[in-house]
Amino acid sequence: MIVTLTANPAIDRILSVDRLAFEDRAYINSSRESAGGRGINASHVVHSFGGETLAILISGGATGKRLEEHLRGYGFPFRAVPVQNRIRTNLTITDKQGLTVNLNEAGPVLTKTEVSRLEKVVREALEGADWLLLCGSLPPGVPTSFYARLIALARARRVKTMLHADGNALREGIEAKPTLATPNQPEAARLLSRTLLTRTHYLEAAAEIRGMGPETVVLSLGSRGAVGAFATGTVEAIPPRVDAVSPIGAGDALMAVYAWAMTRKPDPVDALRWGVAAGTASARLPGMSFANVAQTREIYRQVEIRKAE
Questions:
Q1: Cβ distance 38 to 46 under 8 Å?
Q2: For residue 177, which of 214, 217, 231, 145 has the smallest C-alpha distance?
Q3: Beta bridge partners of 2
């Protein structure tokens, strides 16, 4: 069982346009709406791969009702924790060249009672879970130590944890020693307060972040693949070149399939290879789409694992 937490879900509106250019108009080719949030995306991917998952999220207002309507059509179980304020709506605009603009709201303000209720639901879900995936931003009112507290709860129950966050929630979370931290390049740069541009930068950053607490670090690098810092050393997972149509959600596919692979075979390097393959295969698809097992396996065979010197 892979449990995911989306503390700050959204209704995602995704617009596909002909091209994005500064100070020029763009024409909308398509528009669609879906239930958004890193944890929700991760549960979607795990379910499509035949894995068992439970998505935990908050829900409030008219947008929360629409979110739950979308989720009921996805086929995997979820628990929606009611909150008073409406959940957010995010806008993503992407063009045919893969250029993407994300416009995200901050999210609803949660009360202490609502935060406690959310924590209680997560605590209950840990019974029988193999992994707890802590995904995305925290809404206003939720302390930045929230993920760190959940990591400690999970560890006490021998449940593995994956942390994908940013800012202080990431910093405090990794100090709580999760099983895995999965920052992307901009998140890692903010965490370390320096620019990351070269291969050497990426290798050093992954190793340095691992030294801050996590058992393993996977630094996601988009089309360049990922760097994994493990107890056995640091490796690069280099995907084949593909025609990327939309990178939206590729990072979510990577972390979801990493956890899925680890439940099948506890081999972190092979799980990294599967994760990078899933992210790369998903980037070839339009909009917020995720590759299936067959599409991912095709790329998996082409992902190069290279041990860092």
A1: no
A2: 214
A3: 53, 131
| Residue 107 near residue 8 (C-beta atoms within 8 A) | yes
- What is the SS3 string spanning 30-82? EEEEEEECHHHHHHHHHHHCCCCEEEEEEECHHHHHHHHHHHHCCCCCEEEEE
Domain locations in the chain as residue ranges: 2-307
Q: Which amino acid type is present at position 204? A: E
Instruction: Quote the CA–CA distance of 108 and 132 in Å, as a whole number.
Output: 23
Secondary structure class of 25 (helix, strand, coil): coil
Answer yes or no: are the C-beta atoms of 218 and 253 closer than 8 Å: no
H/E run at residue 34: strand 28-36
* Dihedral sign of CA atoms 13, 18, 19, 22 in order: negative
Sheet with 88-95, side-by-side order of all strands: 28-36, 10-17, 88-95, 100-103
Packing angle, helices 167-175 and 185-192, rounded to 10: 80
Convert the pLDDT of each residue in 49-71 to its tens digit: 999 999 999 999 999 999 999 99
Amino acid symbol at 63: T
Q: What is the pTM of this model?
A: 0.91
Q: What is the per-residue pLDDT across 204-229, written as a single tens digit (0 to 9) for each?
A: 999 999 999 999 999 999 889 999 99
Q: Determine which helix (DSSP H) or strand (DSSP E) holds 102, and give its type and residue range.
A: strand 100-103
Question: What are φ and ψ of residue 189, in 5° steps?
Answer: -65, -40
Superfamily of domain 2-307: Ribokinase (3.40.1190.20)
